Amino acid sequence: xxxxxxxxxxxxxxxxxxxxxxxxxxxxxxxxxxxxxxxxxxxxxxxxxxxxxxxxxxxxxxxxxxxxxxxxxxxxxxxxxxxxxxxxxxxxxxxxxxxxxxxxxxxxxxxxxxxxxxxxxxxxxxxxxxxxxxxxxxxxxxxxxxxxxxxxxxxxxxxxxxxxxxxxxxxxxxxxxxxxxxxxxxxxxxxxxxxxxxxxxxxxxxxxxxxxxxxxxxxxxxxxxxxxxxxxxxxxxxxxxxxxxxxxxxxxxxxxxxxxxxxxxxxxxxxxxxxxxxxxxxxxxxxxxxxxxxxxxxxxxxxxxxxxxxxxxxxxxxxxxxxxxxxxxxx
Length: 331
Prior knowledge:
- About 30% of the residues lie in helices and about 20% in strands.
- It is an alpha/beta fold and about 325 residues long.
- The strands form 3 sheets. The chain has an 8-stranded mixed β-sheet with strand order 4-1-9-10-11-12-13-14, with helices on both faces.
- Strand 10, helix 4 and strand 11 form a beta-alpha-beta unit.
- It is globular and about 50 Å long.
């Protein structure tokens, strides 16, 4: 039997914008917040930080303004061990900013990123280091929504057929409706995701983009070309589709403090598993374990369980995993 495909071991490069983020502290409506907490938010850098936590060599590639917010973003992303030495500093454009407005129906996000340093990134970013040395390039559907040049960047990274590129490409659909003109996102995101080696999509966002009655298997029919397609069904399960079939791993019941960043954490855990040669089941489990670290904290980046706890979780039988009540991070 042919072994399942997986990316070659080696460094990962995550490309995309990271912004400063303001959120009410304590959490509550922005209108009545007594104070705001400053943090950092970026899907691709979230993946990079969690990959670094898992011990995977990883660089984050982007642009920041030459301003205090940009310096803070750079330092925050670098702290877990992410290589930020290739991040551009733009003296003429600011670092992007987002403001969270939590409410009973969920958290609304206000973006202040038009004209930001990262919004003018383009395909030339792929021509030099660290991309030339990468085994895996990670992108999301946020970047092509930022500007024409950013869309060109992502399209060029995915121009060649899977298997003919110098690196594998991982693409998380990460649909942000507020960033797209009406009616544009479904076709663009489907095309980009279907050209990736590894694609991630939430079942809910797939239904919003391509049909409200879609099942995970129907999503695979719409995205038939990725070597690995992971469909995440929130608190229910995640399914990985490969040339060898489908593997589904249920989501452990986890205390949720804030859901922001969990999808990025899942992608990082899953990719770390693949890069280390784990089975598809263990890669999905590692995705769930990593996602729980984000779910249990306010903010995008929480502590992983220690190595012993992680190995114990991966060693659970299928029945024990399904009955697992809570995945606890280490203190």
